[in-house]
Structure formats: structure tokens, C-alpha cells
User: Fold this.
Amino acid sequence: MLFKFLLRLTARERTRRSNRQFGGILAFVAGAINAGGFLAVQRYTSHMTGIVSAIADDLVVGSIGLALAGLVSLAAFIGGAITTTLLISWARRQELRSKYALALLLEAALLLMFGLVGANLKSFATLLVPTAVLLLCFIMGLQNAIITKISHAEIRTTHMTGVITDLGIELGRLIYWNQSKKANSIQFVAANTDKLFIHATLLGLFFSGGLFGAVAFKALGFSATLPIALLLVAMALPAIALDLRKIARSL
Assistant:
């Protein structure tokens, strides 16, 4: 039963339900990585809006080094998205069931690498702090591209600005007072309760993941990356296992 559920999350054949279940789990993961990562390197790395604004500010005030660091972080996020696209495109050409799972497995491996880098931050802070930031940016770009491609840009998991905006729109529609359906037959305002539910769920899971990530990092340090990585591996392995079995049979 669990195997089938995990397989459905990354299956080639998508349904709205599986997209939303997968998106919800990844929103939790993104919240955990973003919050835990901030405690580790004092930077949020899951959304690029602040980084792009900071680059502009740094250029204006003459902090060229900081501006270049922001550009490299932006490039790392873009690189993650590019990597996901390449993996999915290659796996689709090979007719693999694991076209989405491969990127998840890579994310898990990079998250463990971040934990390894972080464990040595105090000894080599000058070198490893920038490396850790770039790893987190790359991971977030990688993950955001996975759910964006799966859901055809309907669901985003690494940043909440759009989610909260859509949530506000639907709440506005929900509380809007229509005098009567007859009088407002053309301009009747009604909330899309389906959208309201999914956006509220994504926001709640991102926040819950943030709480988990912060608490886990405070309690376990960089070992907190292990349970998150294991969750990603658990979602990726069923599809990968079926592909490996298929390859073994063809040999």
C-alpha cells in the first residue's frame, strides 16, 4: 500500500490529486530546508526575489563583492532548474518511470552533501559558508522545477508569495457580499473553494516544514538534513526500482 502511494507521487501519469499530494510534501520539505538553512548560514535561499533586490541595492551602494555573490546564488538556483529539466527530458526520451524521481534522488544527495559541508563550517567558514549557500540555492531551484513541470506551473513549493496572493484573492471573493444572484447574474462573485483549500494547505505545510526544520536544526544541528533526505529518497525509490528491474530483465 505504501509502495503504491509513493509510486503514485512520482508517476508519469499525473492526476490532480497526486500533484497536490506531491506538492504538499515538497512544500513541507522546502519550508524545512529554508528555515533550517537560515539558522545554518543566515540566509533564506528558497526564493529569488530578495536576492535580486539585494543585487540591485549592492550595485548602487558600491558593494560589488556582495552583488557578485548574489549573482552566483541566482545562477545556482537557475542551474538547479536547468538540471531538473535536463534529467526529466532525458528520462522521458528513455521512457523511464523515474523521470521525476531522478531529480528527487539528486536533491536528497545534495542535501546530505549540505549536511556534510555544514558539519565543517566552523573549521573552514570562509570557504564553506558560500558553498553551503550555493548548494541550498541549487537544491531549491532543482525542487521548484520538479513540481512546476509536474503540475504545469499550477503548484509552487519553494516560495509563498504567489500562494498567499492567490489565497487572498479567493478569501476576498469568499467574503464579498452579493446582493442576489439574480441582480448579479453577470458579475456574481464566488470563491473557488478548491483553490482556497490547496493554497491554504500549501501555506500550512510550508510553515509546518519551517517549524520542523528550525526545531530539528536546533536539536540535531546539520544531522537534521538526514530525515528530510530520507523522505526524498523514499519518494524516489519506488519508480527507480521499477526502472532498474526493467533494465535487468532486458539484459
About this structure: The chain has a mean pLDDT of 83. The radius of gyration is 20 Å. The first helix runs from residue 2 to 9. The CA atoms of residues 57 and 63 lie 8 Å apart.
